[in-house]
Amino acid sequence: MNHNNYQSCVAVAGSNPSIIKDESLCVECGHCLAVCSEEIGVAGKRIAPAGSETENACINCGQCSAACPEQSLQVKSEIDDVRAAIRDPEKIVVFSTSPSVRVGIGDAFLDQAGAYAEGKMVAAIKTLGADYVFDVTFSADLTIIEEGCELIKRILTGSAPLPQFTSCCPAWVKFVETYYPQIIPHLSSAKSPIGMQGATIKTYFAAKQALSPRHIVTVNVTPCTAKKAEIRRPELNDAGKLLGEPSMRDNDYVITTKELAQWMQQEQIDFAALPDMDFDSVLGKGSGAGVIFGNTGGVMEAALRMAYQSLTGNPPPDKLLEFQPVRGLEGVKEASAEIGDTTVKVAVIYGTANAARFLEGDISGYHFVEVMTCPGGCISGAGQPQMHTIPVTNDIRLSRIRSMYAEDARMTLRNSVDNPEIQQVYQEFYKEPLGELSEKLLHTTYYRR
Ligand code: SF4
Predict the structure, then answer these.
(1) pLDDT one-digit tens code per residue, 359-372
(2) How far is CA 221 from its chain centroid?
């Protein structure tokens, strides 16, 4: 039976890199269609021509799969490819974990939702055979510096239009490219954190360790199904272009938190009994600002901390270290912050349907707008485990968010610009934000779909 129509349920093209659908399990309950039309704002927005596949219309967020109670819609797994890389003696397999994974992975194994399980997560990945485990909070800090400098440049010089929109959510980027291409000049050119991480591993890290980048396999563990599509964007081979090997991808695989949990279950790893382990260096340290990247408002708060210190020369005040107006689970939040002589007006949005309504209003007057596709941000990405409930409840989302803010508050390093590993990578390699090498490896372009 083929349910591929927009009347009852979401259609999934066979070539979709993020989601697969088993039509035999679909009961046409319509939960997937409801989330895709009401929260994501995609279903029904543009119907592909009859007879064609619908991959362009899908933004790969996977929220349809997170809403499916029948296991008909599922995340496309890359575990077997990663296992094969680990078995290959020539390959050096480098994992990087996104901020939200550490507050999601425990949901699959522990009674408490949203437990901060960073050390056990690292230990589990090492047990599975990783050669190195790095932290994407490092590249979240790198993103904030590049994106923050771009914002300051736009404000001070008018180099590009305001407001600047964040670009770290690939589903949001594809939403703009597909449905609002007139907004493309407003998107920050900064790559997402995993985009920066992959390019930095295959250049800076490889050179520092005297490893052949050709032998490095980069695996990102993320809460996000859209990242599976993002790493396959043709232009994201910047390390290869720089090194004269354009067939080499910056990132090779993305597995979700859910896939990591399934893999651990297959290997009968006792998560609760694992010892805590530390990330490897030199891409293993992030600030509290990098940690909170995973929840709605986190990127904005991180950017304001960075902008304050860069523009005034002083550390951000307590108010900006707990900037309440951008916290919480409202779909659209607005705020102003005094930074030097400028009143910076910002908005924080989750749900691309909310973003569409925002774009259809008057966007003039804002300086910076954060958009994440998933409800509550990446903490609730479609690749997060759902052992407790389908769909994920706001209580679970809030547990994960509280866990991240608590870790940020506990840390002494809370501003991306203070991260010593970030200072080191600029001194030894990138030299300066928005410099020649930074533009080549850490920034990208977008196109009308
Ligand atoms: Fe992926 Fe986060 Fe965007 Fe969801 S909000 S699509 S998890 S980047």
Answers:
(1) 999 999 999 999 99
(2) 10
